[in-house]
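Researcher: Structure for this, please.
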Amino acid sequence: MRRWLLIVGLLGCLDTQAQSPVWALRGAHNTVYLAGSVHLLKKDDMSLPPAFDRAYASAKTLVMEVDIDDVDSPAAQALILQKGMFADGSTLRDSISAASYGRVVAEATRLGLPMEGLQQFEPWAVALTLTQLEYVQLGFDPDEGVEKQLGRRAHADGKHILGLETLEQQIDILASLSKDDQAAFLEQTVTEMGDADRETQQIIAAWRSGDAAKLAALMSEDFQTFPRLYHALVTDRNRRWMPQIERLLKAEQNYLVIVGALHLVGDGGLLQLARADGLEPRPLQ
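Model: Predicted structure, token format:
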């Protein structure tokens, strides 16, 4: 489940040298803050680390992976259905091994999800559906995640929200995976779901405390998993985003850029790319 969290960006993490989930990049006349996000939090554990408040107060505009207003629109739901369904009449049962299918049936049954409704969806969409439902049943609420919390504040305060990419671009990354990669992705998801609550709580605790060493220990195994998927979902997107972030540094106003997971750290992470371009990211305490 750590792998799923990292791949789809459900949580943010820290650089191994700092004790903050938020970093500051200085432009000639402004500051761009880079923040790691936890997209789902529990209602009784929804407060954000203080660095988020400081960055939010300073920024005039929020920039997220996708404009949060686009995610909940009817058009977005229709797009997910369109991209996630088999176009050639295949079924889920036909697309994965019998052993994997048995594990999917077991998890879907446990979650109260009828298999008939899943048959027409591709493996990546089934993995996403099962994961989201698992988190809801564990008490995690996307309405209390970092983006939703800050999005509500931005609307109330009259601040603009922008996206680094469109929802369709984001979905296409998963929808364009090969059949083998989709099957492996779903297999891994159902195999690790039993550890979701424990591992997620450990990661969130490390995120809150700025315990980069703990985060590195929890996630080190996952950095080498699914290298093709890692590049497609993380490093390739970082390379597309970095020129946009550098353009923000030429503006007169401050921005808060909120991204998930491995987008900040590691090989090809935004912090590494920023340093390679002569910038000096500094942790915001």
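Researcher: Any notable elements?
Model: The first strand starts at residue 22 and ends at 26. The longest helix spans residues 227-248.
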